[in-house]
Amino acid sequence: MSDPHEFILQHISRHIVLSEQDIQFFKSVLRHRKLRKRQYLLQAGDVSLYENFVVKGCLRAYTVDNDGTEHIVMFAVEGWWVSDLYSFLTGTPATQNIDALEDTEVFSIEKKDLEKLYQQVPEFNRMFRILLQNAFVAQQQRIIGSISQTAEEQYHSFITKYPTLEQRLPQNQVASYLGLTPETLSRIRKQQAKK
Amino acid sequence: MSDPHEFILQHISRHIVLSEQDIQFFKSVLRHRKLRKRQYLLQAGDVSLYENFVVKGCLRAYTVDNDGTEHIVMFAVEGWWVSDLYSFLTGTPATQNIDALEDTEVFSIEKKDLEKLYQQVPEFNRMFRILLQNAFVAQQQRIIGSISQTAEEQYHSFITKYPTLEQRLPQNQVASYLGLTPETLSRIRKQQAKK
DNA sequence: GGAATTACTTGATCTAGATCAATCTTCTTT
DNA sequence: AAAGAAGATTGATCTAGATCAAGTAATTCC
């Protein structure tokens, strides 16, 4: 499994079955890239030209508001796809930044190639349909949490849902994902330690 | 366009092209239903057995928290699809309620039929992939708004994004969608009227 | 068409979480 | 291994929006 192609093909085979020919074509559109920790994969203002699959490491997509505060849109670890989808679909400048929280390896697919892929191997429509359904459900839950739960409840949901992420991420990144300040999250953790 | 089948077929033809045979099969899996205002399409606790397309009227999907407060997950007007997707996919009891804010007509597709549809007319994978991409983008924006904007900013974003919905919905429903109390929304509107 | 729900408004008060500030700890990088 | 940067903690204070309460305006429905 040290071969990165092996890893992505495994992932895909969970949802669709590809012929040897399909696999060859798919591999041919993948561009393998390595990012150092803190390196950008996408900067707000540029157009998101690629859909990216994380092979190793961890990325974050985030926006920066008027007073310079970062707000995390999503994390992407091994097996996740990430881009600024709106920018990718429309060709308009990205509002999101994507950078590496750890040294990271990705496969990137260019938009034109992805379109070709959908045509030549329509099964990929099915795969992304399924992945997007799952993302849709997760996002709805995050929205409901965000509008109906206290900070403490949201944090608790987060660690139950993503126990490994919680281990792996700096606390301030989790705070930003939840829409809290690092101070508030620190206090919540202190509280919980008592129990 | 008074024929409801005409309406849904029009919508679908924006994304995919169907043969006469495909159309016949598609129509055969649609169940047309009418709901009175306030009538449930789905109650939390029941399994979401259908994916529903709104032909006429307006639905809301919402959860109810421990103190009985409702939180709106989404609205669905003409041309939108709605279900408790998690329940629909997994067969587990729904956490969401769906009911009618106006007298409403929908087409419902049973899960088994939808699966058959994906098999017999794989183009539907493509269509739902595209619709889900759009939903993904919209939900990301809602999440970012919710964790980074003030109540006033969120309300402003809402009316710019959904001007017709804003007209059509009771104010307290909009408040609930935004995660605000009706009192707060009322005060925001009063503020804005001054300007 | 009038009673009864349901929706909206306005005021007074409260509170969860933000902000500001200072210190401490843990990683990075050389 | 030491210096610097980034992350975490703790305390004091502030504030946006919630809650509680009471009244007014719209709808709904017999």
From TrEMBL, chains A, B:
InterPro entries: cNMP-bd_dom (IPR000595), cNMP-bd_dom_sf (IPR018490), RmlC-like_jellyroll (IPR014710). One of its GO terms (molecular function) is kinase activity. Pfam families: cNMP_binding (PF00027). SMART domains: cNMP. Residues 18-126 form the Cyclic nucleotide-binding domain. The keyword Transcription does not apply. It comes from the Bacteria. Keywords: Kinase, Transferase. Transmembrane segments: none annotated. This is cAMP-binding domain of CRP or a regulatory subunit of cAMP-dependent protein kinases.
